[in-house]
Structures are given as structure tokens and as C-alpha cells.
């Protein structure tokens, strides 16, 4: 009886992280589509109101950290060193952003797995990765006095995003998931960014904020 009352009441530790962890467990075990907010609340021992205090919808539990990751990428790119080559700044920002995201959330790989395996999230996933690529394209365009929709910025944004995503997919599917994802990112992006640097217009990089 006491245990039942504890489950119904507010637990001593009722945090955003605990609810998120419960949600990810359910998404991975039972599937994203069949997991409801009431089930997430029950699993984490809180009320539905507590879940909605942090997220406006079920999908927000999946996307909130991804959106933060993307927003921070723009900030890191804007703060990249003015005197360094554009693509060096892109590589460094992408790797550092991943490091910070992994530090912020122990559930990053689980979240990525849910995103990659839930058909219901496929459209949103494509749109968000396109937004990630556009942030890189915007940075390149600004530093080289081009329009964001010009061929070079768009191609660079798409190529860097594709390499970044490929490493995350390798991380997710590697047996034991024991790869050093930050090292692998740096190794994958280094030759790509070096090659892309030679493709940039012969104008002096200009620092943007």
C-alpha cells in the first residue's frame, strides 16, 4: 500500500532527466508510436502534468536536446576564430558541439536511436537535419560574401551534415558502441573540410557574429 502511494505521489527525485530516461526506455523497448504520455508518467512515477511541465508534447522529449544542439552549433560557428580557415572552424565547431551535447545528456545515443528507428519521426528528422546543414551553409556564405542558397555554401552544408550523420549512424550500429565518436568525427571531417576549403572563393574570410 505504501509503495502504491509512493508511485502515485510526487517522488523525491522528480527531474527532467529522470522523466526523459523513462521515456527513452519505453521508446526503445515498446516503440515510439505505442508509448503515450500517461505511460511515460507512470514509468517515471510522476503525473502527466509533471511531464507537460517540461515538454509540450511527446515528440518534444525526443527533439528538445537535438534542437538545442543545432542552436548551439550556430553559436559555436559564430564564435570561431576570425583568422582561421572557414572549414577548420566548421570542423572544430561540429566536434565541440557533439562533445557538449554528450556532456549535457547521457541519453544522446538513445535519443538518436529513437529518431533513426521510429518511422513516425522520419519527416521531422529530415527537416531538422536540413536545418543543421543550413546553419553550416549560412556560416560559409557569410564568411565568403555569398548567398546562403548559392551552390558552394549549400553543397558544403550538405556534405558536412552527411558526414556527421554517417558517423553517428556508425556509432549507433557498432557492436558494443565502443567507438570514440569524437575522434571518429574529427577523423571523418578533417579530409572533407580540407577539400572543401580549396573550393571556397578566393576571398578573405570575414568573422561573423
UniProtKB/TrEMBL annotation:
Keywords associated with the record: DNA-binding, Transcription, Transcription regulation
Ranges of residues in domain HTH tetR-type: 13-73
DNA bind region: 36-55
A UniProt-annotated Pfam family: TetR_N
One GO MF term attached to the UniProt entry: DNA-binding transcription factor activity
Organism superkingdom: Bacteria
InterPro entries reported for this sequence: DNA-bd_HTH_TetR-type_CS (IPR023772), Homeodomain-like_sf (IPR009057), HTH-type_TetR-like_transc_reg (IPR050109), HTH_TetR (IPR001647), MftR_C (IPR041347)
Protein name in the entry: AcrR family transcriptional regulator
